[in-house]
Amino acid sequence: MDIDTLYALRSSSGLPSHPAVFLILLVLTWALHMIAVHVMLGSTALALTGAFAANAHWRRLGSAMLDTAKVAVSLAIVIGVAPLLFVQVIYDPFWYVSNVLSARWAIGFIVVLLVAYWAMYHHYFVGKEGSSGSSRWSLALSLILLLAAGFIMHVLASQALRPELWMAWYAPDGHLETSGAGIHEFNLARFSFFIALAAPVTGAWLLGYRRYLAHREDENPEYLDWIAGLGRKLMTGGGFVVLICYAMWMATLQDTAGNFPLSLWSFLANGAILLLILAPALFRSPSGSYGAFATAAGAVLLVAVAREALRHRILGGAHGYELSTYTIHFDWYSNALFCLTFVGLGGFAIAYSIAISWEAGKTKGLYTASPRVDRLGKFALAALCIWIAQYFFFGFLVMAQ
Amino acid sequence: MDNSTEILGLYPTWYQPALGSGWVLGIVAVIHVLASHTSVGAALVSTWLATVAVRRNRPELLEYVRKYGVFLLVFSYVLGSITGPGIWFSATVASPRGLSALIHSYVWWWATEWVFFVIEVVGIYLLVYLAGKVDGRSYLKIAWIFGLASWATMLVIVGILSFMMWPGQERWFSEGGTLNGFFGPYTFAQILSRTCFMLMAAALAGGLIAAYIRDGAFRLEMTRKLAWVGLFGAVLGAVFFQWGLTTLPESAQLLMKTRLPGSFVPTMWAILAVIVAYFSTLLLRPSALKAPLAAGMMVALLIFGIWPEERARESMRKPFVAGQFVYSNQIVARDVPALGVKSELPVLESRGMLAVHPFIPEHLRRVDAGNELEAGHALAIVYCSNCHGLGTTGTRPFGEMFAGNRDAEDIERFIKGALVTGNMVNMPRIPLRDDEAHALALFIASLPLWHSITR
Ligand code: HEM
User: Fold this and answer.
1) Which residue from A62, A123, B41, B157 has the least number of CB within 10 angstroms?
2) Contact B81 A74 (CB under 8 A)
3) Is the domain of B352 the same as that of B312?
4) Residues of chain A under the 70 pLDDT cut
5) pLDDT tier at B145, thresholds 50, 70, 90
6) Dihedral of CA A291/A296/A297/A299: which sign?
7) The domain containing residue B149 runs over which residues?
8) What is the DSSP letter of B338?
9) Does the complex come out with an ipTM higher than 0.85?
């Protein structure tokens, strides 16, 4: 596809803000999506190991990680919605073509994810607490399907980077192929890289978990040390695996990526991986730490930035596609609406939710909210009421005009 | 960057012969409607119940809220949160430009909805896991934040869906502004009818949990409470739904009258009557509540209520798929001066689809004696396959059209007389050039042959 066509494929409706705003939000929310995905994959894998292990520590950790996995799946999905929105706003030509060409897989993604989720719940309700029943296989199925869902995402992202091949995929030998059944492009090294990242991120999660458990007085210190040890191993060992995958990915990059492996962005990605490998050495407290997880989150964000730079290198560098030429029809109301809702309302509500579940989790028996926590809740509730009021206010204003 | 006369921004087509891509989208959407409406309604009902539980200090009610929450988490949240992006995925592959038009105008509204969605999902976990673990006032806050955030997701999506049908204010076309497209009489009618409908769905789902309550007196109480909520939702919902119909533009009223199957209105009344009868029975004889019955009612609602309703909404906006300017077959058919959007019909008319569609193989760019059939196929894929099966299967299949007439000349005459001129009420205008009309007619006439060659 030549550049004129790529531009023609853009929505003629234009954008309500500058594309850079969407780009930043895309990278940011995608990084959050991946952190949730990594914790989800890692905790599911640990839960699975626990379900098949005889070792008491493993069994215990496995059951705790099942709880984590359940919540992490919802978060991965819910947070995934945001980059899904933003990617089709600024990369619509690429995202839509890629999806249509593999339409069955895009639809299949929905089914795969549903079964994965329910299979996990099946194990949760039927096989909890150290049982070794057959529901363990449901959990195994769940993990496989989650990986399959990720692979479909990977395919859609990869095909979007290949405008020069679209026509050959859509009309092989000049005859239209409209079934949407094909998988046309993937790179196993790239996919492995994003999946392997789950190991160090989950390792960091375990170090945080160890720290969280430190508040409980009656905990078995041996179990706690074991968790911390496992977390460190996952971070450092997993980090090396990630590094190898990254090298393989860079070695197998499509030629339109040019000299990306030697770019500053690629160095940034390498730095992020090193950070993961070294994190256990940086946060050495025997009682674990939250810092390791914060570091891991930062590393994923850097990886997300590098991944975006690669997309820019390919689409901008090789095809001449510039985000900044997207037509803008600035819409003040919806810009303000999102910003205020995101920061004001969302900020308070999420802060309140985290604070209260955190405190309640640490408290034995009934937790009574401290005035500070309570105030957060009041703000969130007030913001919600104001939000609903302004909605009807502007609604009636528009109707009255 | 104006290349509009050179090449149009049309996407490849996904053709699904068995069901039609529209139905695939429809199926995902219907499941999503049931799950999401149940979730929001249940959030409102839970908020109310949690308030009563805390105010009157009734732990058993709190336990009901918790169990109800677990049920919702496993069914409606899983289904709802996956089929939600699922609608995007299926709309992407069935109607990329329709979705794109909605997304590009309403991205910030959708992002706002996403914020509420995150709060809602976190909220349902808190409601379940913190029941009995935090003080009453805090639990109330959690419940109210959860309930209001859920309702707010509906407030946002209703306006976007209304825009999809008809931009709220006619001035949106000339002045733009998302507010003008978002708010119209139909938006408000939908807020009311959907809220009621949500409560009704939640009352049905709540019955599934109430049926398992052991304590007889408590089960009685819950059954009655839910029956009242359901009855209230069903009756008021029907009233607001009727009101909503009166806010429709004339073109939609016409389509409703002429194009909906005759069974539509009776089916809607019948399902309403059944639901009212169900809840009334529960009020009179609460012991009649059984889980299979409640589950059966949910399924009936899905099949006889939501499916026809969604199909009606889909036919009412025909021939458009989004904002009354993007056709079902993805062509932009109306100017939107506010956005600088230009109708593509004139270009198609003068240059022909085959010449300006980016995803047409080079050897089909011009119709000639050697490629007529294949060019006709390409035209059918681009212009028709969004709504018609190109064989004997799928929606409104060609095999059953033209009254069995396989005469290419007759078909060509019909195409030129009715379609090229845009004389079919619910169909897009198909601005074929003469050579294209000829090729398309030839293709349609020789469908059996085509299928035997390509199979
Ligand atoms: C739960 C299972 C999921 C897994 C394991 C998963 C994993 C992944 C992976 C590995 C990638 C990177 C692909 C690449 O760049 O090569 C990715 C990208 C992405 N995922 Fe997910 N994902 C999951 C679910 C979801 C869901 C439910 C959504 C949307 C609601 C979503 C939205 C996205 C988006 C928008 C991208 C980026 C596309 C782009 O930037 O081109 N994911 N995901």
Assistant:
1) B157
2) yes
3) no
4) 128-132
5) very high
6) positive
7) 21-327
8) G
9) yes
